[in-house]
Amino acid sequence: MEKIILNVDALDFLEKEGFKVLKNRLAKDEEEAAQIASEIGFPVSMKVCSSHVVHKTEVDGVRYPINNTSEVREAFLELKKNFKIFHPEKFLEGIMVQRLGRGIEMIVGVHTDQQFGPVIMFGLGGIFVEAIKDISFRMIPINKKDARDMIEELSAYKILTSPRQRGIDINLIVDFLIKVSQFITLHSEVREMDMNPVFVSAKGLYVCDARITQELMP
Hints:
D-amino Acid Aminotransferase, Chain A, domain 1, alpha+beta, seven-stranded antiparallel β-sheet, 11 strands, 2 domains, Dna Ligase, domain 1, four-stranded antiparallel β-sheet
């Protein structure tokens, strides 16, 4: 039996394991959303949260950038309305209010192969990941050389090292990949994990969204 962890729960889970995530909280109504946004600090993004929705963009379930409380209230009501149109029979847990991510969008994933065991994937992330498919793979566990090779194999490596991206520390990405590898080694119950997007910039590296599949013990 499997358990899938999404949205705020997935980010909370990762944060407790020592990963840096973008500040976020779940709002149940538009006034609570406005208060949360004010506390987190503008600009923010807003996303529908439901166990029935994995890819939020496919149900028009994301709004950004949002720059003031008036826009927050409007976005909350619009997202709630859209969700009822796409999923009238499903339960909406709330709307996530999250600090807006900055930088290059990357994806980090883990898949458990029946023959080879856990495999880590790294590449260009965001909504274009399926179209571009600029990704690399290694079997877990990986070391620093493996992690750096994964990064350098990408066409996006030229973007990461471009003078326009001044301040991006490749070692930060290396350490993140190592941390994911160590996390999976310690948590064999995690069978799948997708972190997309992961924002990397001169200000650091932060997980924006995640999906985690755990194998439950009988």
